Amino acid sequence: MAIGDFAVNESTLFIEDVAIQMGKIGKWLQAIGLIIVLWIVFEVVYLVILGRKKKEIVKLREDVKRLEGKIDKLGRKRK
């Protein structure tokens, strides 16, 4: 009977060790997942900011072209 108890105790310890190791792996996977989610959030924020900057640059270019046109018209009227 002592051998049977040893086998049961040994298998229980093995299962506990496996469960502990799986828990550690799970924690690492959660940490990696959190890092990936944060990275995606930062990339989306960066793309939004980049889009706004690009929109502002396009607006400035249009304003400069409009002002150049007005300056050209003023130059032609004086000649």
Short synopsis of the structure:
The protein has 79 residues and is an all-alpha fold. The protein has one helix at 2-78.
**Number of H/I helices:** 1
Strand content: under 5%
Question: What overall form do the CA principal axes indicate?
Answer: rod-shaped
Helix content: over 70%
The counted number of beta strands is 0
Give the distance, in angstroms, between the N- and C-terminal Cα atoms.
117 Å
Summing up helix and strand content along with how strands pair, one would put the structural category as mainly alpha
Radius of gyration: 34 Å
- Average of per-residue pLDDT values: 86
Order of helices and strands: H
Oligomer designation? single chain
Low-confidence stretches: none
Largest sheet descriptor: none
Question: Describe it for me?
Answer:
There is one protein chain. The chain has one helix spanning 2-78. The chain has 79 residues and is mainly α. It is built from one helix and no strands. The N and C termini lie far apart (117 Å). 97% of the residues lie in helices and 0% in strands.
